[in-house]
Amino acid sequence: MATRLPTTKPFSFLTSRSFPDDNSLVAAFSGSSRRWASSSSSSTTSPPGKSQKTEKNLVDRLSSVIDAVNDRKLPPELRGQRNSVRSETDLINVVERRIWNSMEEGQFENLPGKGKPLNLSINPHADPAEDTLYRILSKNGCAPEWIELNKEIRSNISEWRSSLKKAFESRGNGDHSIWTESKKALQAQLQHINNKVSYQFHGFLRMEN
Description:
By secondary structure, the protein is mostly helical. 66% of the residues lie in helices and 0% in strands. Among the domains are: 12-73; 128-208. The longest helix has 33 residues, at 176-208.
């Protein structure tokens, strides 16, 4: 007894006005292929050549529908050009032409914020809570502790360099006693600055990260 094929129509959307997306097409093709495979395996009268031909027709129909759906997604300038090369360069050229045409038509003339400085008070890459906190501190003339520490370190370095310059000039004048005394003080100051950078400033940065 011949096996009765299912009455469902997996490709009924071919006659509709709207095209489904690629996922729907693949799902429909997979379901129809499984039903066709189970029917063909249970039937003993269908020759192998006919089965392969039927499967090829299904694949061809599915490919044509997918091409039609993808063709509808393209800009009008590239639709219907199945034999042409649709490279990334072609799409970029289409976008550039549209931007240029819009500029010639003056569509960029009345944009909001034109001629005004950019609002850089909000950092899009920072955490919203931290960004709000920093803005509050900035309005009140304050800064985060690690920024204040950075200023303090830079000020200490500037003072240390000034002291080193004076001590070196005294040595050039032949007064080695001042250089000997200043050398020990400069070494202690430099060690204090290095400790402040290593243990305090870097510690704040590790906490921030």
